[in-house]
Amino acid sequence: MKTHAIKFFLLSIVAGAAMAGGVGYAFPGPAKAWADPVPASSKSNGKTEQPMEHAKELPYESVYSSELGLDHNKTVPANINEWYDGKRLTEFQGVTPFDGASYVAVSRGECSNPGYNVKLIGVYETDHEIIVKVKYINPDPDKTYIQMITHPSILFKVNKDGKPFRFVIEK
Description:
With about 170 residues, the chain is an alpha+beta fold. It has one domain. Helix content is about 15%, strand content about 30%.
């Protein structure tokens, strides 16, 4: 009887960690035609990059983060869900337009424990581009983490389309 209780306790811990670690989620939403991805640019199409002090903060809607999980109040189109699920398994930064807005994904790819994460610092707009600032969070060396495969990532929506995106990643 005691062995059964210990096994159940350990299984509960592993299952809880798996849910917090970025196991795939299904996003409800109507199916629509595939949106062509907008290439993520690291430069502003040959134009001189504007310093961040000339950028204005741009509002965004968080859809998913591996830290917080799925925002169940958001309806995400099925094609965006498929695009995101296909990209989050490898290190990736990208944008896909949909219905006048842009869905933005940043993923660290495969990591060895839930101590790794991606944190959105902010989204900013200049005359020539949209800048996405994220920080890669690493495990706290003073903590012990269960060893499991995770895919730290974020997905959010910006109500802008047409400008190139530039990703700034703090490591």
